[in-house]
């Protein structure tokens, strides 16, 4: 028997997209979906990160595990991650986690031969796969001189010091270790709905209006220079701090301003580490959530076992 | 030293069922679903979707302990439906909602990347 559908049809409006940043509105759904997407972007969208390091020579001032930890935290371009295998599920290398289907090999060989301190950076990592490389943070639009951008510093070497190692990068998720999280920050807020009781506002002097406007710690309200009326300039600047409401109360004007959180509208901001594009991160999160839902569907044997139980139950009840 | 392996949080051990179902012995049309290696992400969306279903009288979930990597989902329905039917319906509806969301998002993205 097929039940009635209670499906929702969410709407999306994108406000801004950049490679590693985006802002969008999500409407006609509830906080559970918004929060599930946020949680998945942070902890369950896969990326690729260094997971195994074999150190050949390390005469630097940092010890082997310190350097290994730093290598793990370097974001690697991970467009391939969604279609890649987890090492634990890889048949090709049988749990070894070092085959081409589930890993990417890196080499780092640096020695300082001059009196000048040598910076070892993420750019010195040589990848066996040109699609998986340390994220390039030099941005032509940033206005900085790109020739000075050397990537993420791993260690500094003085004359005679050397670092030689092999590293294996694997697919993983943020739930396992934060180094695999593609998200720098993912947040959402309820869209606020701000209502000003204009009749009551008219009873305020200009001085009182200014006081009210000033009472908000963020610039939500302002006074229209033309007609000296209190206007909402930026509803989203409101942090649900209740300060204006308390102020109205203190002025003996409860209900002067009313603020409601719309329970089906959310404003998302997504920032990534550069491992995947922000827009791709959202799409991957939707795919991951769909896969998770698919995994929690009841198996046929569970349904069958219950059907038998049902008959037995009906039989015992004398049906 | 004796900390559980990190993968314990999301890899279902061999021989363990992802979802198991247990009927309530005392209440009609009530059951508990045990979902292995899932947390609030799945628990909360399924619960909220079940609340939209008119035939669902009760739907709630809990994460019994942070080191027990499973959730318990309890559903009671009217005699018009059954916990299993409501559970399946909720997952189907969520799946379709996400299909729709994906289309919406891709459509919006195409509009923005054209002039970007
Ligand atoms: Zn492999």
Average per-residue pLDDT of chain A, rounded, comes to 92
Number of helices of chain A: 7
Number of strands of chain B: 4
The string of secondary-structure elements of chain A, in order, is EEHEHEEEEEEHHEEHEHH
* First-last Cα distance of chain B: 52 Å
- Biggest sheet strand order of chain A reads 1-2-12-9
Main sheet characteristics of chain B: 4 strands, antiparallel
Q: Give the neighbour order of strands across the main sheet of chain B.
A: 1-2-4-3
Q: Report mean pLDDT of chain B, rounded to a whole number.
A: 95
- Cα end-to-end separation of chain A: 21 Å
The shape of chain B, in one word, is flat
What compounds are bound to the protein? Answer: zinc ion
Largest sheet of chain A: 4 strands, antiparallel
- Looking at the structure, what is the overall shape of chain A? flat
Provide a compact summary of the structure:
The complex is a heterodimer of chains A (319) and B (116). Chain A has 319 residues and is α+β, with helices and mostly antiparallel strands.
Report what the structure shows.
The complex is a heterodimer of chains A (319) and B (116). Chain A is α+β, with helices and mostly antiparallel strands and 319 residues long. Chain A has 7 helices and 12 strands. Chain A has helices spanning 31-43, 64-72, 198-202, 206-215, 243-250, 278-295, 300-316, and strands at residues 11-17, 21-27, 47-58, 103-111, 118-121, 126-127, 153-157, 162-172, 183-196, 221-223, 230-232, 257-272. The model of chain A is unreliable at 315-319 (pLDDT under 50). A 4-stranded antiparallel sheet of chain B has the order 1-2-4-3, with helices on one face. In chain B, helix 1 crosses helix 2 (83-114). Residues 87, 90, 92-93, 97, 99, 101-102 of chain A line the site of zinc ion. Zinc ion (ZN) binds at residues 87, 90, 92-93, 97, 99, 101-102 of chain A.
């Amino acid at each position: 028997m097929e039940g009635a559908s209670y499906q929702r049809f969410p709407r999306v409006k994108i406000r801004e997209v950049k490679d590693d940043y985006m802002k969008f509105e999500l409407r006609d759904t509830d906080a559970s979906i918004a929060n599930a997407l946020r949680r998945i972007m942070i902890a369950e969208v896969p990326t690729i990160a260094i997971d195994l390091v074999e150190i050949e020579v390390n005469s630097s001032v940092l010890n082997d595990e310190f350097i290994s930890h730093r290598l793990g935290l370097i974001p690697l371009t991970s467009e391939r991650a969604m279609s890649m295998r987890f090492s634990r599920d890889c048949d090709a290398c049988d749990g070894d986690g070092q085959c081409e289907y589930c890993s990417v090999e890196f080499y780092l060989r640096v020695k300082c031969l001059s009196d000048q301190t040598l910076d070892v950076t993420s750019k010195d990592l040589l990848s066996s796969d040109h699609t998986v490389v340390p994220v390039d943070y030099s941005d032509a639009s940033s206005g900085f001189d790109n020739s000075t951008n050397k990537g993420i510093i791993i260690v500094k070497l003085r004359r005679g010091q050397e670092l030689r190692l092999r590293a294996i990068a694997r697919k993983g998720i943020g739930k396992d270790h934060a180094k695999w999280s593609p998200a720098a920050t993912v947040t959402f807020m309820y869209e606020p709905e701000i209502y000003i009781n204009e009749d009551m506002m008219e009873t305020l002097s200009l001085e009182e209006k200014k006081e009210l406007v000033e009472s908000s710690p963020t610039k939500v309200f302002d006074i229209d220079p033309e007609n000296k009326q209190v206007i909402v300039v930026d509803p989203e600047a409101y942090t649900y701090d209740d300060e204006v409401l308390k102020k109205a109360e203190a002025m003996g004007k409860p209900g002067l301003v009313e603020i409601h959180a719309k329970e089906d509208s959310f404003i998302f901001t997504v920032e990534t580490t550069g491992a995947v594009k922000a827009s791709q991160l959202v799409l991957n999160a939707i795919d991951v959530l769909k896969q998770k839902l698919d995994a929690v569907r009841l198996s046929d044997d569970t349904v069958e076992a219950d059907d038998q139980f049902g008959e037995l139950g009906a039989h015992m009840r004398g049906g | 030293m004796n900390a559980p392996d990190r993968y314990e949080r999301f890899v279902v051990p061999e021989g363990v069922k992802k979802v198991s179902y247990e009927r309530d012995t005392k209440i009609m049309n009530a059951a508990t679903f045990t979902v292995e290696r899932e947390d609030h992400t799945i628990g909360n969306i399924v619960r909220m979707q079940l609340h939209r279903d008119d035939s669902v009288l009760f739907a709630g979930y809990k994460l019994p302990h942070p080191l027990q990597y499973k959730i318990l989902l309890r559903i009671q329905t009217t005699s018009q439906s059954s916990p299993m039917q409501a559970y399946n319906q909720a997952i189907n509806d969520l799946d379709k909602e996400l299909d729709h969301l994906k289309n919406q998002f891709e459509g919006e993205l195409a509009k923005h990347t054209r002039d970007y």
